[in-house]
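Late entry, evening session. Most of the bench is empty. Finally got around to the prediction I had been postponing all week. Sequence below, unchanged from the version circulated by S.P.
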Amino acid sequence: MKIALIGDIHSRFAQAEQVVTTIRTDQTEAEIICMGDVFEVEKKPVYSADETAIEPKPLSNYVMNSTHSFIHTLNTFPGVIGNQEEKLMKLMPSVKIPEHITIFLGYPREITKGDLLFIHGHQLSWVERDPDVFHPLIENEMLTYRLFFYGHNHDQRLFGVNHVNGEMLYEEIPIQLGISIRLDKYEKYLINVGDIKSTPSKWAIYCSDADTITFYELSPAKV
């Protein structure tokens, strides 16, 4: 089994289309999972004349590229909900949101496959290791899983985790694009799959048969 993980699209659908096309061309057998934050949601409240009531606004006022054709392609594979989708639900009544958008608002908090957990990450507690290194903490109900795939902070990274004397010890593992890394040296792993929004866009592929993770970014020729 191969699982291609894309996330943090933030309405950059042209870039997402290039990534998905690359995955479906080069890794034809890979299942795709979206890791959340499909949309870039901007809060632009408009107040009534007395400046007390917020007037309802159309979807285009909140969501970038809300009519892009690639949104329908995203409907062809599963995903988890991100904070941008949750923000949209707070800004607009559900009856005002088109059906092709609401499917993403119904994404689950997480997807599990055996000992694999897929989650956007904003729901978790995070720790700052260094000024530019953040990662979520493995806590409570997460302890039953071995591999944790997440996104949220747009920072493609890999951490090995061991449970020692009741404490979780995290160690960052260097990554090289396109080079598969075997996941057999630590008890657990935190895997930030990268983001589509950045240039170049980034993603990751997990292979269960080899128990490897491979990180990718869109080549300049395809950007």
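Two things to note before I forget:
The CA atoms of residues 16 and 155 lie 17 Å apart.
The chain has a mean pLDDT of 90.
Will write this up properly tomorrow.
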